[in-house]
Specification:
Layout (H helix, E strand, L loop, with lengths): L2 H28 L16 H22 L7 H27 L4 H23 L12 H14 L16 H5 L4
Helix pairs in contact: 1-2, 1-4, 2-3, 2-5, 3-4
């Protein structure tokens, strides 16, 4: 697999992640608020729930890449681990930075941040795949840790700001839908 081919895959990945992430924003409601899908789809308007919109599609696309060519690249999962973990980190960092300045969230900026985070994550993964510097293999564990956190916190939500649904002031699926 040439660098140019991988670059095309990563660009396709940006489009895939953006489209799937956009669909995941509405998937919980589309499912009739089916609780078993809460680990995958956003269940409210908290920042935490919006991180799923980049994370799960990025993981799915990375799995497709691994089947297509990643198994031939020894640092594939370490590079993808960094790229996948970078997406939620960028979303959180930029969201809190701009809301600290403006005092409130602004939907067009939120969408721009989502696009930026996805593009940066895919770009970072690509760059690390072909970097002459080694990538710590422990980075491959980052998506696993994030996946565990998304599943756990979807049903057992901490009562801190990152998890607070701004329109309702509730935390997570159980409180949001009156399930105790």
């Amino acid at each position: 697999m040439t660098q140019a081919n991988v670059r095309r895959w990563e660009t396709l990945g940006v489009v895939f992640i953006l489209l799937c992430g956009s669909a995941l924003h509405f998937a919980f409601a589309w499912s009739g608020y089916w609780r078993p899908i809460a680990w995958l789809a956003a269940v409210n308007e908290s920042l935490w729930e919006h991180l799923k919109l980049a994370f799960w599609p990025a993981v799915a696309f990375a799995l497709a890449e691994y089947v297509a060519f990643g198994s031939r690249l020894p640092r594939f999962w370490a590079a993808k681990g960094v790229g996948i973990a970078l997406m939620p980190a960028v979303i959180v960092g930029l969201f809190y930075a701009y809301t600290a300045v403006l005092g409130d969230s602004f939907l067009p900026l939120d969408i721009l941040i989502f696009i930026t985070a996805v593009a940066l994550g895919q770009w970072a993964g690509y760059r690390l795949l072909f970097s002459p510097r080694p990538v710590a293999r422990v980075a491959a564990v980052l998506p696993i840790l994030l996946a565990l956190a998304f599943v756990l916190f979807s049903y057992h939500t901490p009562r801190v700001g990152l998890f607070r649904d701004s329109p309702t002031g509730t935390y997570g699926i159980l409180e949001e839908y009156g399930i105790h």
